[in-house]
Amino acid sequence: MIHLIQVPYDSGHFDARMGRGPSHLVTHGAAERLRGAGVTVCESVLRVENNFPTETAVTFDVLRGTASAVREACADGMVPLVLAGNCNTTVGVVGGLQSPGVGVIWLDAHADFSTPESSSTGFIDGMGVAMLTGRCWTAAIRTIPGFAPVPDECVLLVGQRDFDDDEVKRLEASAINMVPWLAIAEYGVERALVGALDELTSRVGRVHLHLDMDVHNPDLAPANHFRPPGGLAPQQTIAAVRMVAERFELTSASVAAYDPKWDDAGDTLAAALALVDVIGAVIRDRRR
Questions:
Q1: How many domains does the chain have?
Q2: Strand 155-158 with 177-179, pairing
Q3: Would the pTM of this model clear 0.85, i.e. be above it?
């Protein structure tokens, strides 16, 4: 019923920094918890081969490999649940779905809306939403099997609180809808999200759910070294996922950007495993 796909890469590096998150979640029982809840689970780990590894080349090797793994999971009647180091892995997931009309709900501290031309750091994982909507890396993205850009109006960003100036301007000029963290902090999860989710239902019935663990407040669940202040409590993220599940069919989901190095107390591990549990229960109950 669920194909648990580990994509343990961060910036082209295997099992380093945030790329260590997927195996950490599996080692601490992600698959066993799903099976214990009555979910059929198969597992795989993506590993790409590159004779001369470079960040950009390996990143797109990973996206192509992710697309192939997701496509095979769907062909077997499984729902892909991807544990990833980088957020841009979702671009590969969407390609693998090969299903036009799927929306994307993106929970993240960041908008990930930079481009190579706008970014002062060149950090490719800060470009995931720009890639997803066809704004950059267009030639390389065309090599991802099955990928087609997701229309702006089919993308909903949730929980953002850390932006580059250029990102703000470009988001304002786009048709992407966003519910930033400040709105959730002021109104609560349900009041802040209900309008945006209901609006999205008029456009799509099926979504990929993307969960960057740094959507959480680092005082409660420190996900990685970026760790901007503020953010959701783990129970708020779970409430948001349940709201999504009430309105949409989950075609797939990804849990990304968890670096165990920053999680001495295990709070982020617990939050991530709880999200895996909720996603598994949603998929199990929908398939009955």
A1: 1
A2: parallel
A3: yes
